[in-house]
């Protein structure tokens, strides 16, 4: 039971069981005409059966995703249209999805583009222009990117060379790092515009890694930016850190992906700490977020860490109808990227609320090693 004074609740429901139980239900009806303000942005990399499994799904699986979107009544919108609605806080239909692809791999052109063109679906490809300039074999060409544009695609910025942007090069100063990051973004944008014409100022962080300092650079340059943490894009998302649902590798399963597609955003008004970076010597972050009242079942809020590990969750009233949730993990995070995910069922609809937080953990000596 919920305690109003911060008493710890050890939550007990495995996330996978919750998702599968919800995923096998075929009743997603929302009988009201209530306006919504969110969209589900899907993230893909390779669409191939012969590329690294962790960042790939087969053409057959991708076709199944498109069929699921159609069957469940989703409208597939261009990403700029969704961003315009979020910026202006304009309502959207309840079921809006967006298709995005990072890195401009050739498999997207060969295997995904024909399926999307057949269905007249818009999409976005985030591009590293240097790889296209160098004509690397795994990547699309400028001519293929122009063809994708003509087929309804938006081309957008993914940095020039796909670096780990939050990391310094050796003894690099803050000023030198900032100048290098600005060049990664602006030099890439310049090349995209030279080769492809008008390109919106949309930016996807390489590897989904960002910090408040990097967000400030992105904002100062006038970009809207996207991570790789999961959750609905909504007015509760920062425009420099909009979530996307990974839909490849282990996340390509249609049953669990379907649950995410139908998820709603928690009405979060504060999310702490500000930075995703975690002390490598003490990699046990404490995550605190504050929410407005909503249609979520607070007594069934559950949070999970790596390997679906159940996390400790404290809930307390924060005044003015708000709720403060504090999430901790008794197990230290490994170096690299990790995520905490929190979900809660809707009070009356057969769907969940969803919130995710990414953590970036260096090694205790300050290095990052391989990821």
UniProtKB/TrEMBL annotation:
GO MF terms, alphabetically ordered: hydrolase activity
Q: Show which residues constitute the signal peptide.
A: 1-29
* NodB homology domain residues: 95-299
Instruction: Return the EC number.
Output: 3.-.-.-
Annotated localization: Secreted
Would I find Signal among this entry's keywords?
A: yes
Which SUPFAM superfamilies does the UniProt record give?
A: Glycoside hydrolase/deacetylase
Q: Which InterPro entries match?
A: Glyco_hydro/deAcase_b/a-brl, NODB_dom, Polysacch_Deacetylase
What the entry lists under PROSITE patterns is as follows: NODB
Which keywords label this protein?
Answer: Hydrolase, Signal
What is the official name of this protein in its record?
Polysaccharide deacetylase family protein
